[in-house]
TrEMBL record:
Organism: Penicillium cinerascens
InterPro entries with a match to the protein in the record: DHFR, DHFR-like_dom_sf, DHFR_CS, DHFR_dom
Enzyme Commission number, as recorded: 1.5.1.3
UniProt-listed CDD domains: DHFR (cd00209)
The name this protein goes by in its record: Dihydrofolate reductase
Amino acid sequence: MPPPANHSLPHSLPLTLIVATTPIRVASSTPLKLQDPNDTPTTRLGIGLKGTLPWPRIKADMSFFARVTSRPPTPGTTNAIIMGRKTYDSVPKHLRPLAKRISVVITRDQTGAVKEGVLQELQARKAKMAATAKAKAETDVEKSLDAPADVVPEPITDAIVTPSLDAAIGELDSVYGKEGKLGKIWLIGGAEIYGAALRMDAKEGSEALQRRPVRVVMTNVLRKGAEGEASFECDTFFPLDGMTAQNGWRSASPEEVSEWVGEEVSGEWKKEGDVEVQMVGYERLH
Ligand SMILES: NC(=O)c1ccc[n+]([C@@H]2O[C@H](COP(=O)([O-])OP(=O)(O)OC[C@H]3O[C@@H](n4cnc5c(N)ncnc54)[C@H](OP(=O)(O)O)[C@@H]3O)[C@@H](O)[C@H]2O)c1
């Protein structure tokens, strides 16, 4: 498909937070106030523990995340995944930057060390992927000399390092959007970056951030122990305890979420070992 006549990105391109959370019962304020009789327990949405995920590998969620964030909306485009530096560091070294996506790492580091590290890892990853692709191409040619396959442009693997969310969106727009090469924008965490995205004010934000719908694609994770529901220990939480009409959100239908992610999402709970997962979506009302 040829790039659109106007290569600049429409500013209505949604920003979608993708997150897996588990409900944790905590005091409504700080743990120190637990004894306060006016302090009622509430539920927070746990997302992390000690720099990593609170749960052992959940295949259904990891493969959902990989498919959804890497599948471009049109051939010739590549999705961006925006993350905090700590979330980048939490990705296993041999997998980062994640393939077939533009990783955008946000950091306050001004020494250049974070940028240098990410770019070195990008070079190493690209070299490894090129070697794998070359070996595969040679095997494919041997297998099907007389049946050349249709060439579909693959999403690229790239990485940039920026000092803020605003700068991240601006750079994605100006570098990849202008060339018609940017697909969807996913915000993949962690808590600090979700918080920065949710604090964005459509009216006060830069032009690059204005008028973009803000969405959340959430995997709910529940653990079923021998004696019923059990929780995972968490030290990092999603910045909102829930998304309701009262705090300016609406629940999206499974059909809408399916359209956002590019595959069918039923909204049903699915069992995997002792956990159950469910994918749902929300859109900010204003
Ligand atoms: N369940 C999920 O779906 C999910 C998804 C993602 C992450 N996680 C978990 O969440 C945890 C990490 O979250 P986190 O909140 O601790 O860290 P984070 O948001 O991933 O990264 C925080 C870092 O981002 C940079 N940063 C944050 N705000 C910034 C700003 N306004 N301007 C410039 N730079 C900024 C800083 O990097 P520098 O320190 O380099 O300056 C900061 O230390 C881990 O446990 C991870 O496994 C869970």
